[in-house]
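Why show two proteins at once? Because comparison is the fastest way to build intuition. When a single record is shown, students tend to memorize it. When two are placed side by side, the eye starts asking what differs. So, the first record is below.
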Amino acid sequence: FTVCFFVLGIWQYLNRNKISSLLANETYTVETLNGKSVALRLNDILFIRSDDNYVDVHYLSEGKRNKIVLRSSLKNIESQVVNRFSPIIRCHRQYLINTRFFQIKNQSSRSMLLSLKKNEDQVPVSKQFVKQVKKNLSVNPN
């Protein structure tokens, strides 16, 4: 009986990772506040930072890092690209990150900082998101 739960747990984990990798290759068309639309691949997004009614989308294109500024709220972008299988999660009121590209840099009882794996960019983690970030970074260790 215990073995059954263990096997079911492994199956769910593998299934989630399989679905996550399939969805990460998907291209999402994001609608902005001014009616324009932009196509984004989840695999290419590094992080998204909000600044009032604008967001900076940092992404990779042909191995090079780029940034695009969109007139949109972070909540609007989040509602279009984040789902339970997505590698994109919220870690702060100003940030969405792609867990595939981040690692924990500093952690104390009061705060946590993440950094891009191949860069020095740092992103703060709000207390309310610490548990979720730890869980998602352990699911996507690469």
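Second record. Ask yourself what differs from the first in the token line.
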Amino acid sequence: MWCQVLIVLAVAMPSAQANNSFFKNFGVFDIEPGHALDGHVIKSLPLFKADCMETCKETLSCFSINTYKDQHGNNLCDLNRSTKKQSPKSYSKRVGYDYSEPLKGEFCLKDDCPTKEALPDNWYKFNSSSYKYFINTTNWDGARKHCQELGGDLASFSSETENEFVFKTMLHDLNITNESNTSGLYPHLKFNGTDAGLSLIGAAQFETKDSKPAVSFNGTSYAEIPRFDLHSTDFTIAVHVFPRTASSAEQILLEGFTGSSSIFEIGIDSMNSSGISIATTNSVIKVYYKGIPNQKWTHIAFTWNYKTGVVVPHINGQRSSSTASTSPSPKSFRAMDPFYQIGKGLDGWMSNMVVVPRILTSQEIKDLFNGAISNITDTQPSILQGAWVGLNDKATEGIIQWSDGLPLTYKPNEELGNSEKKDCGLFIKINGDESAWKTEICQANATYVCKKNH
């Protein structure tokens, strides 16, 4: 037996020496048995704990892990984009789980090992700089002013690793494609199979109902669309709906989540008394209109005033006498998951959904009811599908520079689309999984990324 042990040691020692790079990169993890971090999973993998730790170390956007076994005893690993320090409300006891995070946050690419850390209030540290993504939209100057008020500036990047850190940690799952929403319609879903970003889940399917292109739902199926801003702006949501059968259950037109928690629900109820109802339970805002008939098309629109919280429904183009106010603050509409859900609980059809980041007039809502969408004019600047960064040539046309004075030594793409009218830099996603920069009109609105140096 001793001979066997010596043989094993003799074989193992050279192997360990040959894998010094493994132990250099592996680092030390703090393990907390019986705990887990919920709602921040990048992806789940069938890995042992040691392999899970190594994978996290090799993943730029990973800051902690959950390890556990499934019902068949298989090892599973969750890579998390956050930590218990950054998201304490997501951290809880869970039987059978172990939560772990590296004591020294480090990502190594060859001999380049920048440090990283998930900080409170959704800031992320990379070496001596911290970054934060803001989902509310504003023009480039407004974004920069806010960043400066926080003691920083719009984001700048000096290396590929730094650029990819911000992209994969904060922007990868967001709808920041190389497109502009110049009409001001957040989405206009035609439900005819051509809507960009619309995914059907379960038995939901495209159909034609009474000559209308529509999506059919069976009560358990639903659809998903990329998230857009509802928590910091007035808005109008309008849709044609055809309940197949009468139901007193909630039929959701639009729902937003943070992790597994519902943040807001906007929907209808085809039975009970008519009129609008607003309920707040466990910080979930539910806005429902009761009295929608079944077995016929009804056009319903909700306008919502950000400052006053007043919600006004319109049925078939006519303003309802029933109004209500949301409570708590409109900021409670803010959902962090990258997708909204449509149609959950509905046994019937939906057609022609439009969301606009302002309160439409009564005439405009009548136009929507009658299908005249082209009559709607946008009174706000265009909404760009991207995130402002500090790139600009506002001082001298054609001379691109960073707003914080950092030398421009790195670009992910050479062609930025710069022109006399497009002077401000936008971070976008291309080819489904790659980051890029472009220039856009500075007066347009977009989300943005701030940077602070320590």
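One difference worth noting in the second protein: The helical segments are 2-18, 20-26, 49-57, 140-149, 160-171, 362-369.
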